[in-house]
Amino acid sequence: MTGGEALYRLQQLDSERDATQDRLREIDAALRDDTRLRRARQALQEQEQEARKWQARQRDLELEIESLADKSARSEARLYGGKVTNPKELTDLEAEIASLQRRRRRLEDQLLEAMIEREGAEDTRDAAQTHLQETESTWSRTQADLRAERTGLEQRLQEIERRRDEVAAHLDPQTLAAYNRLRELKGGQAVARLRADICTVCGVTISASAEWKLRQGELIHCDSCGRIIVSV
Ligand SMILES: [Zn+2]
Question: Is 103 helix (H, G, I), strand (E, B) or coil?
Fold first, then answer.
């Protein structure tokens, strides 16, 4: 392996290591992020509460209507029972029955509204339940996929480290130090390939003297971006 090849290979491995570590950080963040799950649970709780509210409202109205009907039936029994004969009392009873019936009709209208609201709230609650189940199952699938990907990437990282050591053994300490310094300065990309006398990272043509040195096996840098130029 020539020095240029070793540098180029080292750069490839380091770039892959950087990308792998970035992806591992993303995976860790995704594994911790249960926002969608918590939102779906919260939405279901709210919809369950709303459905219970309308169920209770419907029950209250039904009981109230039942009690009005009882009262009405008792008054009618007295009105038509024959025991009450006083005309004033009979007129009062009729008025009371009429008033009870009016009140009952109002409550029945309210009951109908409450039933419609209850049905709507129950539908929304059921939809929230389905959404939560789907979210939970997606969540477990995603978590399993991410954990599997994580295991694969960690194994790959070990492999990269091993190969990196092998490749680095082909380079002298000064070259390695120059490479590492440039990696820090140039956003991780210390090495640039040469293609038709052009630095493939910055696109600038290298000088004839630099190209001559490169052919002699010397370590040369791009005049423009400063990266180590390799011809591989
Ligand atoms: Zn360049």
Answer: helix
Q: What is the largest CA-CA distance in the chain?
A: 132
What does the pLDDT read at residue 217? 87
3-state secondary structure of 191: strand
Query: What residues have their beta carbon closer than 5 A to ion ligand 1?
Result: 199, 201-202, 222, 224-225
CA of 11 relative to ligand 1 center, distance in Å: 15
**Residue 153, SS3?**
helix
**Domain ranges across the chain:** 10-168, 173-230
Cα separation, 21 vs 66, in Å, equals 70
pLDDT tens per residue, range 128-143: 999 999 999 999 999 9
pTM of the model: 0.77
Output the CA 229–ligand 1 centroid distance in Å. 8
CA–centroid distance, 138 to ligand 1, in Å, is 46
User: What CA dihedral angle connects 5, 7, 9 and 14, to 10 degrees?
Assistant: 180
Residues 36, 44: Cα–Cα separation, whole Å: 12
The first and second tokens of residue 193, run together, are 């390939």
Mean pLDDT of 119-124: 98
Average pLDDT of span 123-132: 98
pLDDT score of 74: 96
In this structure, whether the domain defined by 10-168 belongs to CATH 1.10.287.1490 is answered with: yes
Angle between helices 3-32 and 173-185 (to 10 degrees): 40
